[in-house]
Amino acid sequence: MRSAVFHCRALCGAALLAAAACTPGPDTLPNPDPVPDTFVLYERMSLLWDGAGNARFRGFDGALPPGTSLVVYDDDTQQQLHEVTPEADGRFDVMLGGSLNQVYLVVPKRGTQTGISTRFRARKPVDVLRQSVQPRRAGTGSTPNQVVTALDASTTGSTRAYVVLSGDNLVDNVDWDSGDRTGPVVALPETASALGPVPATPWAMVARGNRGFVSLYSQGRLAALDLDEGTVLGTTDAVSPVALPQATTVSPPADWDGDGQPEDTATAVLPRNPGGLAVMGDWAYVAFANVLSTVSSGTARYAPGMVVAFRLASDGRPTGETRATFTRWPNPQHVVPHPDGAHVLVSCTGELQRNGEVWTTGPSGVDVLDADTLASTAGFALPEFAPSRPLVLPDGHSVYVPSVLRARLARLDLATGAVVAGPGGAADAVHVEDTDQLSTVFECALHPTGLVFCGVFDTDSLVVVDPQGDAVRPFPFVAPINLSELSGNIRLGVQSLSIRPGRNGVDRTGADILILLSLASRVAAVDTRFILGP
Amino acid sequence: MTCVSSLARLLAVLLLMETVARAQAAGDGAAPPPVDFNYEMPVEVAAPAETVVVEGEAIDVARPGTHSVSLHARQGNLQDQLDALPGVRMVRTGGDGSAFNLSIRGLQGRRVATYLGPIRLDDPVTGVLDLGEVPAAALENAELTPGATAASEGALGGMLRLKPGVPLAPVLTGSFTYGSEKLFGVDVAAGRPVTLGKLVAGALVLARGITTNGKFDYEPVVGPLDAPIVLPARARVNNDRHRAGLTLLAAGEWIGGPSGEAVLDVSLLKGGIAGFGTQQLPTPRETQVRTAAGFQLRTPAWHGLEPRVETAVRHASWKFEDPRPGATVKGALESVSHNGRATLVWAVFPMLAADASASWVLDAAWSHGDSGAYRTARPSAGVDAGLRFAPLSSRVVVEARVRGQGWLVQQGAVPVPVYPRGVFLPELRASVRPFRSLVLHAQLTRAWRNPSLEELYRPVNVPMAGNPGLRAEDGWEAGGGAALALPFAEVGLSAYGARMAHMIAYTAVNAFDVRPQNVSGVWRAGGELWLRAQLGRWGEVAAGTDVNGSRVDATGAALPAVPLLEAHASARLGPPRARLVLEWSGRSGASGNLYGELPIRPATRFNGGVEIGLFPGVEVRAMVRNLFNDRTQTDLWGVPQPGREGFVNVGVTPGDALGGRG
Q1: ipTM of this complex prediction, to 2 decimal places
Q2: Checking CA distances to B59, which of A418, A453, A463, B578 falls within 20 to 30 Å?
Q3: pLDDT, tens digit (0-9, with 9 covering 90-100), for A418-442
């Protein structure tokens, strides 16, 4: 698995198949030297040709600290071309002119201090966007659902990413550097039921140090893992039915409380189908979608969604202490920590239904829960938007929320409690793709440059959005990063992505974005060093 | 090829003996045997061409590339015997008694055509056929044509014809099987010939039942293709099968007049459908009832003209439900398929013959419940014309056929012409016999598979809905081979190269929906090599290997669940009444999806057992499968297989001492 040499199929004896499929190795970097470690962050700069034939030199968030500048020279003539000074956030954007293949010498300055200079060779965006992709970094097992990296990987020095395999009931791992498995695999056991064994169906995961926390969709539980040992430290007991604030009429009758009998008046709901989770302090917050029946068995039906908080011991094991609350909207799918550390954000996708060829949802939104009391303190209604996993932006109060039905992003402001862009907001949602057709963005991830990478399931691509001005495909990411090398109407299915902490090209080299392709059972990689940096 | 009654075959053998005797007396070639139309479908004549027989298995020199195997209880169960044929693989859901599907040269489902007499068995709606439902004890012969053929719709991978046997003498047989996974099986057959004036007839009735809980421990192999992981043992559940069936066979001949035969088969199935999947959630469960009836009628030749008629009706009812309290999953699917064919054969000269036939098919289905409600029907009609030229005393046989087929695609009452309404399917086959024991053959064939009704019309409000915009799969195949038949052995090899356009596969169209789509063209190539040898009275040995390579254009990967290499060997050693049976099979690994990912591990297994004839009319067969108890084995598609398992079969044939069934 995951060797640098991709899968080559020798079809011995098959004369007509002489042209076996050999995926080429990744392109080599135009400048493979390490990025100089100096007081400017070269890895957040790009120098590429724009469509008008100019060399455009951009720096993103924090590229140039305040009080610093860059002096750009023509490397051949040593003639100074430009002195670049940053904006408050460390960004800059200048046109340098020049000719194709020109090399620019860039010298950083801070007061009278000169930093380590480096050379940038101007490149074409289309070329580097293509070269940055490694279509198969590793294979996965069956029905992969998420790829995650430990929250503290940069401080612990961990080089692993983890892949949650819902079909195989495993948590596997892939090394960022080698693409190989470097740690033990965690197998999640079945449980017994009156009708036979129930698989774990791991759904979502948070990794912290050598501890992992995984929601087990089919068993309605949370498991704590020792990722170094490959063992299950403990699992929560099945949660007891949670009393509704008031009795609710159920029509037609359905089994809300899990006693095996449909009821026409429900007083409690058995938590079912745990999905997204967040870990803050000693608590793990898990969203329970409470799906009663899926579209596969007719019209999908949902009981009210809820979030259950599980207390964790110091070693990560669940203590058995729980709290639970119902969410404002049905079908909660993701939980992420609020930047204030005292709340969690819960995205509720709403009751997804199929109406003929069209998928729709009803009321949906993002709920804000107090981490201690689980009381809902705010909510962002996003009617018919079907929000997926929220992403807190670098300013600490803005949040992007992608939609699973349209390739759109809603923008929320936690400080004002307003929907900035999206349903009910002052502006239209950010269009990741220019289509009104069904198109799904499950996840977006924040890059150290401050740019947001969104995976589009239906086009097998990453689209970059700059939160500054909500610019879609900002230079130099002028086109979607196409992850597919397939032809025809076969999709790979961009499900999840993870960005490696640390400084790319400085702390380490190689891919810094892993993309989980769920249909292909494969992990792809993108090395942004092809686009960013010298 | 249509089914030939045993009576007619007996007459044919007598005729052949006489013909051969005359030919031998006059020198080879002096008295050419009659032209044989047995080659492929639609027609047959009474006198088969020269056949080289190796104790029940035969290669017909006039039908090279077609494998024939005699079936009877003493030689083991149906799936094992079919599995041993070149190019064939049985895709199993578990051990003995579980469901199994036929795969020929890596293709399965509706891409292979399976017939019981005149009845096409594979479901026109779903394409699925569990061969475990077939009345194996009523079969006398199975004939396999590997590779694409225009002779049957959809037969891109090949065609299997199961021929029921009708008694030539009073017969009463029974067998009982007991084995692992709580396998119990019993079948009883009785029949006798009848003579009423000029009418000679025979009838057989067979009742059968088999049950297994399908439960075994296995060690799942999961994870990525290039770094699979073996997990601790777990139980395979929801895989139980409970079957019962009743079969009536009848054949008759008006001496000097018409002859015919009829089949009626009813089978019932209940079971869990862990089935061919790797998941084993305790839902849902299924109930199937299948009824099939068909008959063939033929008249003697009149001035070289010989008309034949065959027709069959098949009805299948499939229901499933989720047994969990409060669950609402329920559904039902009914299908009716009627096919018929009228053929006229004209033996123009001894070396030239022609045939023409008209055929018709009506497939209809209606579904309700959670599987999606719809009603649809698809009538189609076709004409075939064939010319067979056999100069040089059958040393060279050239046969050219062309089949034209047209159909009406219909949803409800509204015709929807969503794909071409007609196609011409040429087929050219030639064989040369440079020496008496050597046959070389080659063929070029086009085959065609219309999308199944479910692939087209399953409603959009259910998962894996149909796609009315599907195009048919269109395949071309070229191949050839050689067979050498010696008095004590037979060696053969064959090779093929094929191209399939518009392959249909269920793939995701978005994040929520999976539908059948024409995903790609596919290249396929491979071949088979086999050897069968007799050791006199002391047994027989057989070995073979298959190579099946493929490349899906869209992904560059091989077809999923198709191993590049498979091999098998078997030996039956000892005197006729006490034989040691040794079997080995192995295959290379494969990938589990269209992208070339997911592991299907290489596997090899040994089976061993004994066949003992205690005394005339009583035979005992005891086998242990997977002798080394490898519980990591999976079948194609990663379906778990059991570790070591055993079974004992006791067959009683009181009539054997008196002659038994012919």
Answers
A1: 0.89
A2: B578
A3: 999 999 999 999 999 998 899 999 9
